[in-house]
Amino acid sequence: MSAAEPVDPSVAAAEAELARLRAEAEAAEAQLKAAQARAALAAAEAAAARAAAAPAGQATSTSPEQAAPAADVPPAPAELPSTPAAEAAPQAALAGPLSPEQVQTVITGYTFAAETLDLGALMNGDAVPDAQIRIPLGMMNRHGLVAGATGTGKTRTLQGLAEQLAAKGVPVFAADIKGDLSGVATPGESSEKLLARTMAIGQDWSPAASVTEYYALGGVGKGVPVRATVSGFGPLLLSKVLGLNATQESSLGLVFHYADANGLALVDLSDLRAVLTYLTSAEGKAELKNLGGLSAATAGVILRELITFADGGADVFFGEPEFDVREFLRTAPDGRGIVSLLEVPGVADKPALFSTFLMYLLAELFELLPEVGDLDKPKLVFFFDEAHLLFRDASKDFTAAIVQTVRLIRSKGVGVFFVTQTPKDVPSDVLAQLGSRVQHALRAFTPDDAKALRATVGTYPRSGYDLERVLQELGTGEAIVTVMSEKGAPTPVAWTRLRAPQGLMSPTPDAAIDAAVAASPLLPKYGTPIDRESAREILTARMNAANDAAAAQEAALAKAKADAEYAKQQAAIQKQADKEAKARQAEYDRLLKKTSGTTRTPRAAQKSPLEQILGSKSTQTILNGVIRGMFGTGRR
After folding, report:
1. Is pLDDT above 90 for 500?
2. Helix (H) or strand (E) segment spanning residue 118
3. Keywords for this entry (predicted)?
4. C-beta separation of 66 from 90 below 8 A
């Protein structure tokens, strides 16, 4: 083709595409060579670390792959060119489940431009320290799951994440059921075994402590008391704690509505019992009829459950001052985030209350925090340990409330990580909201376990691993990881040896915890309980007033009855007297009538014999003489 001839656009485009593909192939080849060199270096460093950590005179243990002759190692794929770095790499570095291309895919998938948290290093037979597994800090508010059987390292994973978050200025909240998370407040202790492990995964380990605040539910245990009012806790969460059925749950909601409508503050359980007692009393039965179907029998069931609940010691968790969950968002003066540990060893026998109380705290954060959208780093990361307790026997309404909270709280800048034993402990609607997963080893001893294992494997993206086998072979401190990338897509599945926490991996001494609690600036605010006038006092006064009014009314009725009885008796006496007087008059009239016809001389004309003697003349003459003689009035 001469220079004067025009260039065919299609030919030019094809040549440009060919050049682009050639450049990409050369770049991929260079990356592959670098990955193979890094893998060889990592294997050599791991071998050196093992040799340094082994006792004198004891041979360093080697894997069967490391002991195998070079001829037994599968060759690299034919399409990949051989390189000196690849030929010099120890055989163990190439004996992992992933091919060099897949290793490079993992390295690329976990390389981010934004700030990240380090989870650990890729395992491919041995650790590959250049293949660091990370999670973007901004994706921590897209929620996550840390799962695995007991003893596989979930707590240490949680501790490591909490330490890094706090170091980057992100406050952390976590519940410490067994008390072994408290070591985050104390620098870790170095050992040869620890340093060998961290060196092999490329972790520059040094002991460090995080700024830690200790809390306790209602003051049970060590820490600043965290309390909630019954009104703030709400009927939905309380119904789950009490184990109420759907009918009783809706009835409890009506009781809360009645209390709100009548200005009855429900501060503690005694207030709620007072309302229920009032509604089932003679004074409150009329109110009960107006509550839309709340029966006295249902109110009685709820009342009995509340009494049992309180007798079990749960009444100390409810009261005032009510804890402001925004205290969990504080940072230290040096800019580090504060790790808030809810110490709950004292309520281990009340798992439903513990898990539901954590859900209450999360719901309060959702209600109080403003919308902020997607942030470069979250405002708070909330670790929900023993999450299976939250969902055990949960009603549909309760589960729906959790799903809604998890779905929407991301926009408030809060990330939620559920920590539990198997993913099946968490409802599928909740799992669908989670962006990152750290899956420690699973056990499959029963057919149900095997079924759960297969179900778990089916939820992962396609990878070069036989996950059903790998998940049972993971060592302590190892996990299968996939996170959400900056683009919102899942990263490649990576068998990861996780970083070691920089804090103490055993509990902080009690004396240090007591000193930290005593020095807390929150203790004066929340340490002393308050008992203000609430529903119990109001209803007691109302019932006392009603009792006094009833007593006064009863006394008035008794007096009126007595007065009426007295008047009745007086009337009967008067009637009897009148009857007797009438009878005497009738007898007198009868006798008078009977004797009125016995003489012709009128009774008025008749005189008695004495009157006749005194009226005679001779008697008059004698009397005149006597009188004159006595008084000397007679003439001499």
Report:
1. yes
2. strand 116-124
3. Coiled coil
4. yes
